[in-house]
Amino acid sequence: MTGFAEHFDLKTPLALAPMALAAGGALASACAKAGALGLVGGGYGDLEWTAREYQLAVDNISDDAAAMGRLGCGFISWKLAEDSAALDWLIANHKPAAIMLSFGDPRPFAKRILDSGAALICQIHSLKDLPLAIEAGAKVIVAQGTEAGGHGATQDSGRGTFAFIPEVADWIAANAPGTYLLGAGGIADGRGVAAALALGADGVMMGSRLWATKECLAAPKAKEIVAETDGDGTARSAVFDILRRKNWPGIFDFRAIRNDIHREWENRIDQLKNAPEGARADYEEGARNKDYSRVHIGIGESIGLITDIQDAATLIDTIRTETDRALQRIGG
Q: Kind of pairing, strands 119-124 and 38-43?
């Protein structure tokens, strides 16, 4: 068992990615109860949503002390800089085991988090992010590769997961021993977990595969489409951020299924930025009609490994078994 798993009393070295509007209370609590670190997707910092879903998670596992010690929340740093009410509410009303910050400088919020007793998790996308995270007091670093679904570094500014992990592991060993490292991006089964461990990680953060579970808040039809799509079916671009009026910093974009509207605009980003009105109307009509040829499904390159929709506990147990089998095979 790794130090990360021991620190949070995990049964497998796995954390749920705090996917905005998808990783709600049901999914986070199911992961925590199954022995993984369950992080509610506080995302854009919507107070009402975060309060409702975090309270649901607590209610689901309040009689299980071990599971409560595996429950936390994640936020987008640049949105917290605009409004930190959800973070403030969380700290004032609960005792999360961990709080994760991604996409921006974690330092302005770190003291509040550390003073609450929560472990600080910081996600990074390049080596230059790493010293800031350590300065902030991160106990856990998540090295996210561009294979990840949803928001992440652009292909030009980011790294591939399995080249990134060992470089970060070496840096941590030399400069911040005692800090745990999780790999993220393109990991959807026990083989990926074992590979990350072999490269020096202490565990993994998993999003896409846990998105495709019964407890996830994503629409059932979207999950069905994911289970039918292979690994060639996604791409990174700014298309869906433009269509949804999400003003993300330019070093980040969004991996999603390449549906009809994505293919129409993916090679005309500047044109879309300059005149988005017609395409936005098309997207918004698709959203009203749940037409996934026009509405985004944020998912990673590991989509090709997703062939069914399971409950989170069954999936985590399977991943644990797969990881053990893969490590035994590596060990000869």
A: unpaired
User: What count of other Cβ atoms lies within 10 Å of the Cβ of residue 128?
Assistant: 8
Contact 56, 94 (CB under 8 A): no
Q: Which CATH architecture has domain 3-218+308-330?
A: Alpha-Beta Barrel (3.20)
Contact assessment for residue 15 and residue 204, using Cβ atoms and an 8 Å cutoff: yes
Average pLDDT over residues 118-132: 98
pLDDT value at residue 1: 84
| Residue pLDDT, tens place only, 12-30 | 999 999 999 999 999 999 9
Q: Which residue has the tokens 């595969």?
A: 209
Give the whole-angstrom CA distance, residue 247 versus residue 280.
14
> In which order are the strands placed within the sheet that holds 252-257?
150-153, 252-257, 234-237
DSSP character string of 55-100: HHHHHHHTT-HHHHTTEEEEEEHHHHTT--HHHHHHHHH---SEEE
What are the boundaries of each domain within the chain? 3-218+308-330, 220-289
Tell me if the pTM is above 0.85.
yes
